[in-house]
Structure formats: C-alpha cells, structure tokens
Amino acid sequence: MNWLDQVKWDAQGLVPVIAQEAGSGDVLMFAWMNREALSQTAALGRAVYFSRSRGKLWFKGEESGHVQTVHDIRLDCDNDVVLLKVTQLGHEPGIACHTGRHSCFYQAWRDGQWVATDPVLKDPEHIYK
After folding, report:
1. How many CB atoms lie within 10 A of CB 68?
2. pLDDT tens by residue, the chain, 129 residues
3. What CATH number should be reported for the domain holding residue 22?
4. Cβ contacts of 30 within 8 Å, gap of 6 or more
5. Contact 109, 85 (CB under 8 A)
6. How many structural domains is the chain composed of?
7. For 69, phi and psi rounded to 5 degrees?
8. I need a surface site. Which of 4, 10, 28, 31 has the fewest CB within 10 A?
C-alpha cells in the first residue's frame, strides 16, 4: 500500500498538520496538506502546505523567506493528523506566524479574555512582498 493511502484525508482531500519546532518543542502553527503537499514535503525536506484560501500549494516561506526545514513527519494514532518537526529558518528567532511572531499560538486566555503574550519579532509590513 502507498504510504499516502494510509492517511485519512477529509472530504476535501486534506489532512490537518501541526508544525512543531524540533529544538524547543514549541507548537508553531496549524495548516492543511493535500496528497501533493505531503508528498513534496517528504521529498524536499521542506514544509509544503495547501492554502485553502488560495486553492493551491503553499511552500512555507515562498514570500516571507521563513522556510521550515522538516526533520520528522509523524502520523497520529487515527491516521488523521500529521505532525511535522521542523526548524524555522529566515529570522532569528524563527518566525512562523504571518503576524511576525515566533508562533501562531501567541494568544493566551487570561481573566476572561484573549491576551497577546508573545512579541512581534518583525513587522509583517516588512516581511511580505
């Protein structure tokens, strides 16, 4: 059986993906992959996602330069979530979020509201072309 056939793709042919920083264990972001994105990620050793809003493959860092080198690809016990262990490149410390932060998970629930707890490392106006 083809290794891609073992993934439980949703009705749109997608699987959710979590990108985790290999060194720190920080959860950097959540995204989606289709078969081609997962296949290219495995072949290239670089994160390739599927952008639902653009309806096409999205090579992480293609505009920002914030590329993710993939060290490990894992599939959860139900075969319906992929975990990538990555090194975030392009800025030190690595920026994974389009807001210019290290992680997309920068908001914490505090006293009945969401509070931004992580700093903007680089203004998004200076990241994207």
Report:
1. 28
2. 799 999 999 999 999 999 999 999 999 999 999 999 999 999 999 999 999 999 999 999 888 888 999 999 999 999 999 999 999 887 677 888 889 898 988 999 999 999 999 999 988 888 766
3. 3.10.20.810
4. 16, 17, 18, 19, 104
5. no
6. 1
7. -85, 130
8. 10
Query: Which contiguous run of DSSP H or E holds residue 35?
Result: helix 35-44
The pTM score is: 0.88
Instruction: State the maximum Cα–Cα separation within the chain, in Å, rounded to a whole number.
Output: 50
66: tokens are 């914030």
> Which tokens is 64 given?
């920002």
For residues 63 and 73, what is the distance between their CA atoms, to the nearest angstrom? Answer: 24
Query: Range of 31's domain?
Result: 3-126
Token output for 99: 């807001």
